[in-house]
Amino acid sequence: MSEAVALSRIPLDDYTALLGPAEIEELRALAKPLRGRSIEMINSTAVGGGVAEILNRLVPLAEELELNIKWDVMSGGEDFFDVTKGFHNALHGAPYHTSAKDFEIFLAYNEHNRATLPLDAEFVVVHDPQPCALIDGRPPGANHWVWRCHIDLSHPNRAVWDFLEPFVSRYDGAMFSSPEFSRQLPIPQYLFYPAIDPLSEKNCELESEFIAQVLTRYRIDPQRAILTQISRFDRLKDPVGVIRAYRIVKRYFDCQLVLAGGSASDDPEGAIVLKEVLREAGHDADIRVIELPAWAPLEVNALQRASTIVIQKSLREGFGLTVSEALWKKKPVVASAVGGIPIQIIHRHTGLLAHSVEGTAYQIRYLLSHPEIAAKLGEHGHQHVKENFLITQKLKRYLTLFLTVARKP
Amino acid sequence: MKTAETPFEFVTVSYLTRIGNQSAGTLAELLTGLEQCSDASIFYHTYQTLGSHHFLTEGFSNDFAQWVLADTNRNDLAEQLAALDIRDYVSIAALRSDLCRVVGDYCEAHRQFAGQSALERFYFCESVEVTVPLGRNARTLDEFRDGIQHLSHAGFYFHFISSRLRLQLKTNDFSHWLADSLGLRTLADSVNKIDIYTNTLDSTRTKLVRLIDRERRKA
């Protein structure tokens, strides 16, 4: 195991300008009864992935509130991570052939980490399935263990879930990103939304000159409507469906389509999907298919801010935080009603939901015809994110959780 | 300026959302859920949702109405559910009874729709409440005004909206204290009449402060 050091340190007071002093004061008031009390966050990686990104932001903010928080990363060999990657896909419903050997490897690494991790904090928060068997090392006494599941467990592979469930059921509570993602469990389950950081490079305000430069670089015309979907080249994000919806819209409106996602060069399936997308796009000069570098937060930010409408036409989705990113930028969003998207898009209030290519096209046309409604949806979407999906709200939820589990006998 | 014997103590509130074990995929299942879910669940989908969606001042009233509208496309039922005003209730039992009556009557009158599948399921959740004192209190109207201006949305919601259930009166913490502790009954009534369905928490606060300022000018 190793203790992770959070790389991002944005002072809590920097959020005051966005949220107002009362919200920050409230966080301090909630944290007051928890000052000095120990919290141990445990996950399986210090860099890369959404969990590490969130902990990088959350841990320093909690320290600033004088919580005695530390972040430990469990150790594991290649064999362990091969097994847990298989588990991850299986829990998402992908086919998986379980073997006794896989379970042995999983348990052996968890046992090894039990011997090296302290596990003695008053509140132990274990993230995702990889370290979930650490609960076997729970010391006798009154510390509180909660399990944060960042993945969709609505249709898990039976064998893998049957193996993990006895561990999960021994925690004091479990947290899921959506009620739809949860399971019937004998322990309390709580709703914990993922969050965006409004001060991160992906979401902070940008100079208009920088946005203009990005548009020029990718040959996008700022004078005409820009429809954008930001997502990796993955069939579940339905980029081909987005092009088909755009083609219907294009019959009535002069517009451009931007499909931007991380590079497909190291992802064989992504490269195939990218080819399919390019084939579908054909020679349409108004479709821009952009392969962004793996880490390009400022470019993503600029493309979102330059968009007239942001699309997220996924066929299946986790929480889909790109929706919150767009809403935070006051963009009207048309998205599929899948996964965590309906939590972010309250239909007709904070955006428009669709269930098909034709429906997506219709909602886009509606918004292009009614810019005043598009603006209002964007404004309401921004407020919705501010109330529910910012990193400060996530911190508040954790404080509330600790206060809640601590008062239970 | 009058000084109250009992100070107004400002607190804030934070909610954890607990995922329930019930969900509904049809109107008939919604009715069953409404009959069986906990009081904390009714509170979550009506009172709490009004606070967390305060910025929506047109056509959003509670989660049940929103689901019926967006996922079952039964506009007439959605309208009836949205028309239930939490200010008319001092108990969850009474509110639950009316929710069940409205959905039950609709299912009875439109049996062909009662079992129709919704686009998305409705998941019953419930609120777990944690309140924390802010360490600020007010004995005069000036101090009260100052305290209100420094409240977060959650604190303001707690005193102005969810307080109605706690007090079991058709009023809120602010009006209750203004009337009982400062004897300002007219001001208290005016504050209680601010429409929380057509105002955001911010615009409600602005109206409240304006009413207080009018009262201060009288003094």
Explain what the structure shows.
The complex is a heterodimer of chains A (409) and B (219). Chain A is built from 15 helices and 13 strands. With 409 residues, chain A is of the alpha/beta class. Chain A has two domains: 2-195 and 390-407, Rossmann fold; 208-388, Rossmann fold, CATH 3.40.50.2000. Chain A has a seven-stranded mixed beta sheet with strand order 1-3-2-4-5-6-7, covered by helices on one side. In chain A, strands 10-9-8-11-12-13 form a six-stranded parallel beta sheet, with helices on both faces. In chain A, β12 (333-336), α12 and β13 form a beta-alpha-beta unit. In chain A, α4 (78-91) packs across α5, α7 (208-217) crosses α10 and α8 (239-250) runs parallel beside α9. The longest helix of chain A has 18 residues, at 371-388. Chain B is an alpha+beta fold and 219 residues long. Chain B has two domains: 14-126, no CATH class; 137-218, no CATH class. Chain B has a two-stranded antiparallel ribbon. The longest helix of chain B has 18 residues, at 92-109. Chain B is elongated, with a radius of gyration of 19 Å. The chains are: A alpha/beta (409), B alpha+beta (219). The interface between A and B is large, with 39 and 35 residues.
Number of strands of chain B: 2
Biggest sheet strand order of chain B reads 1-2
Helix content, binned percent of chain A: 40-55%
**Which structural class should the secondary elements of chain B be placed in?**
alpha+beta
On the 0 to 100 scale, the average pLDDT of chain A is: 93
- What's the oligomerization state? heterodimer
Biggest sheet architecture of chain B: 2 strands, antiparallel
Quick recap of the structure?
Chain A has about 400 residues and is α/β, with parallel strands linked by helices.
List the helices and strands and how they pair.
The complex is a heterodimer of chains A (409) and B (219).
Chain A: E1 2-3, H1 16-19, H2 21-31, E2 38-43, H3 50-64, E3 68-73, H4 78-91, H5 100-116, E4 123-127, E5 144-148, H6 158-168, E6 173-176, E7 189-191, H7 208-217, E8 225-230, H8 239-250, E9 255-262, H9 268-281, E10 287-292, H10 297-306, E11 309-312, H11 321-328, E12 333-336, H12 341-344, E13 352-354, H13 357-369, H14 371-388, H15 391-407
Parallel strand pairs in A: 2-3, 2-4, 4-5, 5-6, 6-7, 8-9, 8-11, 9-10, 11-12, 12-13
Antiparallel strand pairs in A: 1-3
Chain B: E1 8-24, H1 27-36, H2 39-52, H3 63-72, H4 75-82, H5 92-109, H6 111-114, E2 122-138, H7 141-149, H8 153-167, H9 173-182, H10 185-192, H11 201-218
Antiparallel strand pairs in B: 1-2
